[in-house]
Specification:
With about 230 residues, the protein is an alpha/beta fold. The protein contains 8 helices and 5 strands; from the N terminus they run E-H-E-E-H-E-H-H-E-H-H-H-H. A 5-stranded parallel β-sheet has the order 2-3-1-4-5, with helices on both faces. The radius of gyration is 17 Å and the shape is globular.
Length: about 230
């Protein structure tokens, strides 16, 4: 599938798919771009992300979500060059579920958990939502353009990596961006103290049901796995 060459005379946009190594990548990008790294995240009270005036050679990294109105092209209509890391779909889905519970314990408003759904109920609700319209929790919502999974990375992507091969993919990304190689830095923003209180459940029995309900997530992951640089 097509790939964009890296163009240092243009800003680069790094799409942090939630629960897919974006915090770890952020540390590496800080080392590479220094003050040229701009962070696109909501404020502590849910305030919209800041809108920057990125300069050539800058990198804007964060949670872009086209469905929620904070997509990369909503904020930066001229954005053309993107990088992203994906994660095995069911593993990411479980991690999202756990993180929602962490947010609720921390005092955040998490309407998805208001009625205390089980994991299976939440999974089926997300599927029902996705059948009606694009789900903001889905991987595709984080990408700049709506497209069939097989074509999702055909436009504008300088690099597409996977959490499951994070260290080697960060090395490949360093080559593409002409940055110094270093050991990949793993960062988990929710450590053991924050994990206390997570739902105690064996999620493995739900894996097959998830795969049957969300085949497009696996098609998207396969497209990411098959992606090759220009």
């Amino acid at each position: 599938m097509p790939a964009n060459p890296y163009r240092p005379d243009r800003p680069l946009y790094s799409l942090h798919v939630p629960k897919a190594a974006g915090s770890s990548l952020r540390k590496t990008l800080q080392d590479w771009f220094g003050e040229g790294l701009k962070l696109h995240y909501r404020g502590l009270q849910g305030e919209p992300p800041e809108r920057f005036q990125p300069q050539p050679g800058d990198c804007v990294h964060g949670h872009f979500n086209r469905v929620r109105g904070i997509g990369v092209r909503d904020y930066y209509p001229d954005a053309e060059d993107f990088i992203v890391f994906l994660r095995e779909p069911f593993d990411r889905f479980v991690s999202q579920w756990k993180y929602l519970h962490y947010q609720k314990r921390a005092g955040g408003h998490v309407p998805e958990l208001d009625d205390g759904p089980s994991f299976e109920t939440w999974m089926r609700r997300r599927h029902a939502f996705a059948v009606e319209q694009e789900d903001p929790f889905g991987t595709s919502a984080q990408l700049p353009f709506a497209a069939p999974p097989a074509q999702a990375f055909d436009r504008g992507f300088v690099f597409v990596g996977l959490l499951e091969r994070f260290a080697s993919d960060v090395g490949r990304l360093a080559d593409i961006l002409s940055r110094p190689k270093a050991d990949a830095q793993w960062v988990n923003t929710a450590g053991e103290p924050q994990r206390a209180g997570d739902p105690d459940e064996d999620y493995a029995p739900h894996r097959a049901a998830y795969a049957a309900l969300f085949p497009w997530e696996y098609e998207l992951y396969a497209a990411a796995e098959a992606w090759r640089p220009a």
